């Protein structure tokens, strides 16, 4: 299995330079960071389950998660300013490369009925990828027999791409499994 960084340097840079006509290697977009996020929502009163989510995120990413707090009170959701409403982890550098390697080669194949990512829905206009998982048990660090309750999580992968097309081809060349896009003449 080829490392993500090696693959980027050996295969992605030449392919992107050919596709978009970049002159310099530094013009080629790259992945800056990945943010893994879990919103606690209705379960914020259950301290034990939040602790379980924190441990799961720690296992998945190898880093300590940070609590996110609400910026203002919203009475309809019974949220007060300063309440803990989620947990997140930001990955960069080696942790990011290891996580992406695991995500592409191990996690996606473990997702039930996975047909590929829908590029039109999951990549925004700046070339960033957003993925949601309904079950955290698709990650290899989580043993399904230890799980009492299942929670979802979101992953936001930020790139330096300037538009959707650059982001799509960067991620596709790195090995992200996208569904085939039907080309339309504009």
What features would you describe in this structure?
The protein is α+β, with helices and mostly antiparallel strands and 186 residues long. It has one domain (4-174): 50s Ribosomal Protein L5, Chain: A, CATH 3.30.1440.10. 35% of the residues lie in helices and 18% in strands. The chain has five helices and five strands. The chain has helices spanning 4-20, 47-61, 93-110, 119-122, 164-174, and strands at 31-39, 66-69, 84-91, 129-133, 153-159. A five-stranded antiparallel sheet has the order 2-3-1-5-4. The longest helix has 18 residues, at 93-110. It is globular and about 55 Å long. The protein starts with a helix and ends in a 12-residue tail after the last helix. The model has no long low-confidence stretch (mean pLDDT 84).
Quick summary:
With 186 residues, the protein is α+β, with helices and mostly antiparallel strands. The protein has helices at 4-20, 47-61, 93-110, 119-122, 164-174; strands spanning 31-39, 66-69, 84-91, 129-133, 153-159.
Present the secondary structure layout:
Layout: H1 4-20, E1 31-39, H2 47-61, E2 66-69, E3 84-91, H3 93-110, H4 119-122, E4 129-133, E5 153-159, H5 164-174
Antiparallel strand pairs: 1-3, 1-5, 2-3, 4-5
Helix pairs in contact: 1-5
């Amino acid at each position: 299995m080829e490392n993500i960084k090696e693959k980027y340097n050996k295969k992605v840079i030449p392919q992107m330079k050919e596709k978009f006509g970049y002159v310099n290697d530094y013009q080629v977009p790259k992945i800056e960071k990945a943010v893994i996020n879990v919103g606690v929502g209705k379960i914020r009163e259950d301290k034990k389950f939040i602790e379980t989510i924190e441990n799961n995120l720690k296992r998945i990413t190898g880093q300590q998660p940070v609590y996110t707090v609400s910026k203002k009170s919203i009475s309809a959701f019974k949220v007060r300013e300063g309440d803990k409403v989620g947990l997140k982890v930001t990955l960069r550098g080696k942790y990011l490369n290891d996580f992406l390697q695991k995500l592409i080669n191990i996690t996606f194949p473990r997702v039930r009925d996975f047909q590929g990512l829908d590029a039109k829905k999951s990549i925004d206009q700046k070339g960033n990828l957003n993925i949601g998982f309904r079950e955290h048990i698709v990650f290899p660090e989580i043993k399904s027999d230890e799980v009492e309750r299942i929670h979802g999580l979101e992953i936001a992968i930020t790139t330096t791409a300037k538009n959707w097309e650059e982001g799509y081809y960067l991620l596709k060349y790195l090995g992200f499994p996208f569904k085939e896009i039907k080309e339309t003449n504009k």
